[in-house]
Amino acid sequence: MEKLLTVMNFSHVYEKEKFFLDEEYRWIDCTKVRGTNGYCDKTAFHILQDKTKSLSPEGIHFIDSGNYHYVSELWINKIEEDFTLVVFDHHSDMTRPSFGNILSCGSWIMDEVDKNKYIKRVVIIGLSEEQKETIPSKYLDKVVCISDNDFIQLNKEDIYRFIDDKYPVYISIDKDVLSEDVVKTSWDQGKMNFDLLKRILHSIILKFDIIGIDVCGETEPNNIESIRNNDKINTSLLNFLLYEN
């Protein structure tokens, strides 16, 4: 995996963090793009596509809070080979919006499974049992769910069984998969501790070719204490992804 770092600033939260400052990074200012918070209208999506058009899906992309998790589509849609999508998230992100056919942080995985011919399998790790039950049965031949009850007994051999080694992997991490004891995000959260997240990531990165990784799950931009804690977790996660795994 290329060790390129991109920071996409939507909510101004990254202006209050320092985790990326010691690295070479590309800063993408998205603060003036309307129609992006939680839902993304077509005009906004085209603007975001334009902002990222010269960039490859390779590397590590920080994409702000979970409200912008749909931004993963920008990077995934650049991939032009068969691949597996591995998502760490406390939510399935496979729920249609209640109004209109609009891209949202809660529906982007479903959109990708429907439209992206290169995705061979989606593995969602850390979602709640309730979220697991909401996934329509027609998707379960392509979507594997490891709930936050399942991963307690998870080992790397289980991970290897779920991911086909014929294909490279793109990883998307929403920090709401982590316990509130670790970090606080703007969504309800799961049970995973940080060491377990790193162990699972290590087992995947060790065995499979990684195309790229994105990270979301920042807190609200006015919550200074939580921003500082997120900054620490982002620093540790970035160092792990760049240098330690």
Automatic annotation (TrEMBL):
Superkingdom of source: Bacteria
Name of the featured protein: Arginase family protein
Family recorded in the similarity comment: Belongs to the arginase family.
Record Pfam families: Arginase (PF00491)
PANTHER family, alphabetized: ARGINASE, ARGINASE/AGMATINASE
InterPro entries the record matches: Ureohydrolase, Ureohydrolase_dom_sf
Species of origin: Clostridium tertium
GO molecular function, one term: agmatinase activity
GO biological process, one term: putrescine biosynthetic process from arginine, via agmatine
